[in-house]
Amino acid sequence: MATQPFDDRPGVIWYDGQFVPWKEAKLHVLSHGLHYASSVFEGERAYGGVVFKLDEHTRRLHESARLLGFEIPYSADAINKASAELLSRHKMLDAYVRPIAWRGSEMMGVAAQHNKIHLAIACWEWPSYFDPAQRLKGIRLELARYRRPDPATAPSKSKASGLYMICTISKHEAERNGYADALMLDWRSRVAEATGANVFFVKDGELHTPTPDCFLDGITRRTVIELAKRRGYKLNERAIMPEEMTGFSECFLTGTAAEVTPVSEIGPYHFAPGEITRHLMEDYTAAVQPKAHAMAASA
Ligand code: PMP
């Protein structure tokens, strides 16, 4: 795929309180964040120049860092202002926004108690492709080899870079086998989530989604639950075993990047994206528009 590499683009990156030229936003190879994965990040999406649920993302970023034992030295307010200014400097309307915080280079061992905490925020164009007819065909997922870890094994509620190692391996394997993504089970062999999105199912007109007790309770997931309730759909948040997928009629993923993405296949299980998925895609499209978002915030 020939896209412009991410270290060589025009524009600026917000880096430790300053806007620096994109190509100069560098860190040293001896950074704790790189060697020991002591870094946390967010994936945000701007629609019409406004980041959807920005404050929730920023709070999750702070919480992710806290779970890794460090504190980001910028308030939520300062971070929110920085990303808004970044978008307006780039004159970007539909964009992806990526804040990342990491431990620096003062100590280079497992212990890094006094390392400086850095924060950078970048953004790039990301048009929204709402072509419901095409999307309703659904994507195909493979069952992943790796499982979401027990919360006693890893800080599973943190959006920490280290937790993505098994996601990248699983997604690469799925792509090699001709699938779009992989569905991960959890450490108890229950259905968990995709490599970068949560999962929902439909059965007899009701929604079913796994309880997020060892993976991210996505911001999109919570939004879609709200939208489903407004539609009057019954939502069952519970433990789901993989064999149950035989009896589900529809399936979709939710995530900042995925939005609401219909799924047609997970390994041996087949689904037919239908009315409930379509309604929630439409409702989500409406909810992320800046006007709808502003209305919800002031309600
Ligand atoms: N799970 C994983 C592993 C993810 O990377 C994401 C994307 N951040 C999600 C779920 C969905 O979260 P959100 O809706 O907050 O983007």
How are the SSEs ordered, and which strands pair?
Elements: E1 12-15, E2 18-21, H1 32-35, E3 39-41, E4 44-47, E5 50-51, H2 54-67, H3 76-90, E6 95-103, E7 117-125, H4 132-135, E8 139-143, H5 165-176, E9 181-185, E10 191-194, E11 198-203, E12 206-210, H6 219-231, E13 235-238, E14 250-255, E15 259-266, E16 269-270, H7 275-287, H8 290-298
Parallel strand pairs: 8-9, 8-15, 12-13
Antiparallel strand pairs: 1-2, 1-7, 3-6, 4-5, 4-6, 6-7, 9-10, 11-12, 11-14, 14-15, 15-16
Helix pairs in contact: 2-3
The chain binds 4'-deoxy-4'-aminopyridoxal-5'-phosphate.
What this model shows, in words?
The chain is of the alpha+beta class. The chain folds into two domains: 12-125, Aminotransferase class 4, branched-chain amino acid transferase, N-terminal domain (D-amino Acid Aminotransferase, Chain A, domain 1, 2-Layer Sandwich), CATH 3.30.470.10; 132-288, D-amino Acid Aminotransferase, Chain A, domain 2. Helices cover 28% and strands 27% of the residues. The chain is built from eight helices and 16 strands. It has helices at 32-35, 54-67, 76-90, 132-135, 165-176, 219-231, 275-287, 290-298, and strands at residues 12-15, 18-21, 39-41, 44-47, 50-51, 95-103, 117-125, 139-143, 181-185, 191-194, 198-203, 206-210, 235-238, 250-255, 259-266, 269-270. The strands form two sheets. Strands 8, 9, 10, 11, 12, 13, 14, 15 and 16 form a nine-stranded mixed beta sheet that branches. Strands 1, 2, 3, 4, 5, 6 and 7 form a seven-stranded antiparallel beta sheet that branches. A hairpin with a 2-residue loop joins strand 4 and strand 5. Helix 2 (54-67) packs across helix 3 (76-90). The N and C termini lie far apart (43 Å).
